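thread: overnight batch results

M.L. [08:02]
morning all. the overnight job finished for the chain we discussed friday. pasting input first so we're all looking at the same thing
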Amino acid sequence: MNTDIYNKIIEDHKELTSLPQTLTEVLRILKDENSNSNELANVISRDPALTAKMLRIVNSPYYGAGREISTLSQAVMTLGTRAVSALTLSTSIYDMTEKWDTTLDRVRFWRHSLEVAVAARTIAEMIHYPKVEEAFISGILHDIGLLVLEKSFPDKFKSLWNQAESGEHLIELEENSWSTNHARVGQFLLDQWNIPSVISESVGQHHNNFPLLNDEEDFLLPQIIALANKTAKFSTQTISHESVYNVEQKIILQKNLKLSSEQMRDLEENLITNVVDEASYLEIEIGSTSEILMEANKMLYRQYMIVENLLSENAKMQKEATQAKIEKASLEAVNTITATFNHYINNAVATILGRTQLLELALSKGQIADSQNKMEFSLDVIISGVNTIQMVLQELRNLSEFKTIVYHDDTYILDIDKKIKKALNQLKEQDKKLIAS
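M.L. [08:03]
and the structure it wrote out:
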């Protein structure tokens, strides 16, 4: 890993390494197992705008407790220290980074980030992960490294982003340019902010490939975030790149987290609706309803095209399989015919040889007169011809026993041809000698 890039980020953008005092205190409380609700309420109340926002959130339909919550103390008591800390951290970092200059489509960026956060929290709840707030924070911050890279290297990042939008793989482009990627840069930034290490490490590993049956506790949250990222439908890019390899990794993560197909279906069916609701509660801009519907329609169209291509490939494979069956049946038929021909011709050859041997025996005993030895020579020619027939039959048997690939081996076929032609030429020469004599 090239550490120069991290040194440059620190030197050029010292403001990245420091958080507002309120957030610093909230993080301290989040990391302190002995902190109490009053302490958190007192810290948040120092920021009037943040206080008003948190009260609106906790009184929303999603977080509301069925009665109006009018004070931060009540909010913390109702939702818990960790939940309020997570909400405070998420909304505050959203507000802070919105002030950073960027050419990235921020609406798309936060739509995707919030979707991953909601998916991660849902997965955490499904598998009874003890601190679901960590999953939500990790999800909403998982791509923050993109903002850091663009802020630190605006021209280079813009060039790479355009390449990624045209179909190239962003992680590979980042690795080739900086010997790191936005996931690890995001982890670096969160470490500077003293975000709990379990969260920063999950952000840093969300593009990692996890092996099957990896159920170690240290890799539980990273795999939750990785699966949530692969499950998210909205992308930071205008073109999302799905691949067979991504699908395989998604299946591995699902198995490692012991999630059923029914659970994954429920997650994906309700995800977009939950993201829209969450965005309104947290006051995160993810686009208008019409924009979201348009994006959803694009996703549906892409899924339709994927299914159509799969059906087309399936039909092609079935056609090829049918043709292969026909070819296999034809080959088996040829083998059967060859075996049948072998049987009858072998019988004929055996008969010819038998009669020839009787003639040779009669000649040797003087039972047949052959003063010029023409009969003996003729028998030699007959035997030679029969041997040629047997050789051809043997080659046919060899061919019928070989796999189909042999029929595409021109060298093998030429060798057979040469053998047969040589034997036939020898037979012709013997015929000429017989005629000349």
